[in-house]
Every structure is written in C-alpha cells, then in structure tokens.
Amino acid sequence: MILKQKFPHNSATASLTFLNLIFTFIGFVFYIDLYIVSILLNYFIIFSFHSCILFEPNSFIYMREKNGWSFYEFHLGNILLHWIPFIIQNSYFNHVTLSHVVYAHAIIMIWSFLEMKKKLFCHDHIYVPLNPKTWYLLHLIGSLSMFSYFYLYQSKIGNHMR
C-alpha cells in the first residue's frame, strides 16, 4: 500500500524508459541488435508500468503528486514516452531470438542493481513506494511480456505477420 505523503522529486535517477529511448535511437540509427533489445525492453516497460494500477489503483495519482504534474501532463508524458515508441517499434515484426530476451533481461538486472537503494527490483525512489512483493510481480509481468513477444515471433502467428 502506498503511504500518503509528500514525495521529494528525485531527478538524479535514470528511468528505464529514458535509457531505452537512447538504446532505441542508437539501435535504429546503426541498425544493430540493440534496436531489437529495445523493443523487448519496451514490452517490459509498458506491461510492468501499466500493471502497477492493478496492484495499487492510486499509483498513477501518487506518481503525479510526487512529480507535481497535472492529470494531462502525466498522461501526455505517458503517451509520448511509452506508447508512441511502443507503437512505432511494433509497426513490423523484427527478427527476435532468445539471446535478445536474455540481453534485455541482463540490462534490466543491471539497471535494477544500479538503481536499487535497499532492495533489488524495488524502485520506490523512482516511482512510488510499493510492497516489495508487488515490485517482484511487476518485474515478472514485464519479463513474461518479453517472452511472449519472442514466442509470438517464433509461432505461426508471427510468421503470418512478418
């Protein structure tokens, strides 16, 4: 459960979304495997971020309060930072392998380790305080979404969409 409190803005932390936008740009410009890894990271970001409201229905409200954003600023930022890159990257299927999924997980593990304060995978200082079990479930949801993209690509459905 989130504690109702005033949250200090912490601009020193690097969100996975911004790192992924850098990976997307580098991978797209040079068309290297980093672009495919960034697609997988985008799945992780979209599914874990938006699943947060399933476990804590007021989490988006508290994120807005923490950062001092209005309703419109928060959701416009969500669309610009999360949904538009997600839609653009998924406009066609890319050749994704299991090694891409492993690389994406490695990036998430390294980022989580570097960003952790007290507990691995608990990003209370970046987003809002949540129960550690909730953070683990959000990471599991994000990880399963990356594997689902890989599975879809390998399946017959993916073959028809390429």
Q: Which descriptors apply to this entry?
A:
mainly alpha; globular
Overall description:
- With 162 residues, the chain is mainly alpha-helical.
- It has one domain.
- Helices cover 70% and strands 0% of the residues.
- The chain contains seven helices and no strands.
- The protein has helices spanning 16-30, 33-55, 59-67, 71-89, 98-115, 132-154, 156-161.
- Helix 1 packs antiparallel against helix 2 (33-55), helix 2 (33-55) packs across helix 4 (71-89) and helix 2 (33-55) crosses helix 5.
- The longest helix is centred in the first third of the chain and has 23 residues, at 33-55.
- Mean pLDDT is 77; it is low at 1-13.
> What is the number of beta strands?
0
Mean pLDDT: 77
From the spread of the alpha carbons, the general shape counts as globular
Total domain count: 1
Strand content: under 5%
Percent of residues in helical segments?
Answer: 55-70%
Number of helices: 7
Tell me about the largest β-sheet.
none
H-E order: HHHHHHH
Terminal Cα span? 43 Å
What structural class results from the helix and strand content? mainly alpha
Instruction: Give me the Rg, rounded.
Output: 16 Å
Return residue spans where pLDDT drops below 50 for at least 5 consecutive residues.
1-13
